[in-house]
Design goal:
Radius of gyration: 13 Å
Helix content: under 10%
Distance between the termini: 40 Å
Number of helices: 0
Order of helices and strands: EEEEEEEEEEE
Shape: globular
Strand content: over 45%
């Protein structure tokens, strides 16, 4: 069994910053990829950022503002979000790809509002 737990969401004013964390544990030997999806009300889920073997990818709308990183020793991933905009409001989900399959967390709410 694998657990993926996100934390760090909350309410922030436009222009502010948040750092999301993703802690993975359970029955796997290696995490190959980590990523962050988000889903806003009434919209489809979109992949925001992904990291694999040191390479990173971002959706255009967050390039230059969000940074994805990971600590392999701790099986933990992060999403640093700067210059937040109201349109970044969504539930953010962490996903991991392991030797034992792909897993998705329960999500953490990010609300950007004044």
């Amino acid at each position: 069994q694998v657990q993926v737990v996100e934390s760090g969401g909350g309410l922030v004013q436009p222009g502010g910053s948040l750092r999301l964390s993703c802690a993975a544990s359970g029955s796997f030997f290696r995490i190959y990829t980590m990523g962050w999806y988000r889903q806003a009300p009434g919209k489809q889920r979109e992949l925001v950022a992904r990291i694999s073997s040191g390479s990173t990818n971002y959706v255009d709308s967050v390039k230059g503002r969000f940074t994805i990183s990971r600590d392999n020793a701790k099986n933990t991933g992060y999403l640093q979000m700067n210059s937040l905009k109201p349109e970044d409001t969504a539930v953010y989900y962490c996903t991991i790809g392991t030797n034992n399959g792909d897993y998705l967390g329960q999500g953490t709410q990010v609300t950007v509002s004044s």
